Amino acid sequence: MAASLILRNSTRSILPYPLHTQFTPPSTLATKSLSLLNFAKMEGSEITEEVRNKAGEKDLSSKKKVFVAGATGSTGKRIVEQLLAKGFAVKAGVRDIEKAKATLSQGNPALHFVKADVTEGSDKLAAAIGDDSEAVICATGFRPGWDLLAPWKVDNFGTVNLVEACRKVNVNRFILISSILVNGAAVGQLLNPVYILLNVFGLTLVAKLQAEQHIRKSGINYTIIRPGGLRNEPPSGNVVMEPEDALFEGSISRDQVAEVAVEALNFPEASYKVVEIVSRPDAPKRSYHDLFGSISQR
Ligand SMILES: NC(=O)c1ccc[n+]([C@@H]2O[C@H](COP(=O)([O-])OP(=O)(O)OC[C@H]3O[C@@H](n4cnc5c(N)ncnc54)[C@H](OP(=O)(O)O)[C@@H]3O)[C@@H](O)[C@H]2O)c1
Fold first, then answer.
1. Is the CB of residue 144 less than 8 Å from the CB of residue 5?
2. Which residue's alpha carbon is nearest to atom 17 within ligand 1?
């Protein structure tokens, strides 16, 4: 995004996002010969399962499939990689399938690409999500360009389209990568430099807040993840998770944002919640059961 570029090149340190931040997410058994091996990864695990046949080969039709919008993005591709590593099947919703194949590891039979531009309406998106996805993770974000309405089209209407598409194909789990400070105006952050900067370029945070409000009214089981400034570097601290409108500064590795998005699928404690996340070196290491469980629903 345009604001991303500006902040990335900045050398001053007055901004809540640190300067190194880059502003740029079983079935029943087919035959009796199959044996079910449940790979519940963590306490409270809800949906990660693998089925293997007698030869020990994975039965891909039994994997839980997650649709990832924005799968070619810096966070989206990490979400795809982590989902695959945890035994999910992934339908990567992308604008350009050839570019996606170059960006994401190929050759994994559990990864499929499907064309999905979130600005093209909910019918097309519903067809892309299909009747075999059990959850949608949205890691889209407008790309900088001449279209000043792009944030509104992608980060607001695009996300709304995705939610409506989920309703059309009865997908009842939605994870959104949003941002801290989206509600900044209402909570005394109107003069926060990041709030100002990100809204100067197409009202990005306001657009994201509109989409969040739509999700919350939709009835869908949501987890809205609001990260601080995103970094490409590996984690340098532990995840700090707070309720909405509590964090106004800080940053986090995209690896950790992807992990939070994937773990949200595993923990019922993440349902119907807005969580704000940054990482801090001095923060204690906490389980996701504990982190999500510490946030109340509103
Ligand atoms: N940067 C930060 O510091 C920061 C901080 C907090 C929150 N966030 C938010 O976190 C999310 C992820 O950020 P990121 O920097 O990892 O993202 P990113 O690398 O900028 O990737 C954006 C993704 O959105 C896709 N996209 C753009 N327009 C689309 C459209 N019309 N239809 C479908 N997909 C579209 C892009 O696809 P193409 O590859 O085809 O362009 C790309 O996959 C964003 O919502 C961002 O606003 C960012």
1. yes
2. 73
Q: How many CB atoms lie within 10 A of CB 49?
A: 18
**Does 50 fall in a domain?**
yes
Q: Write the pLDDT tens digit of every residue in 150-178.
A: 999 999 999 999 999 999 999 999 999 99
Are the C-beta atoms of 176 and 182 separated by less than 8 Å?
A: no
What is the domain range of residue 246? 2-293
Distance 140 CA to ligand 1 centre (A): 4
Contact 125 CB / ligand 1 (< 6 Å): no
Atom of ligand 1 nearest to the CA of 4: 1
Q: Cα(25) to centroid of ligand 1, in Å?
A: 9
* Domains identified in the chain, total number: 1
111 occurs within a structural domain: yes
Residue 179 maps to which CATH number? 3.40.50.720
pTM above threshold 0.90: no
Condensed to tens digits (0 to 9), the pLDDT of residues 183-229 reads 999 999 999 999 999 898 789 999 999 999 999 999 999 999 999 99
Whole-angstrom Cα distance, residue 81 to residue 88?
Answer: 10
User: Is residue 244 included in any domain, yes or no?
Assistant: yes
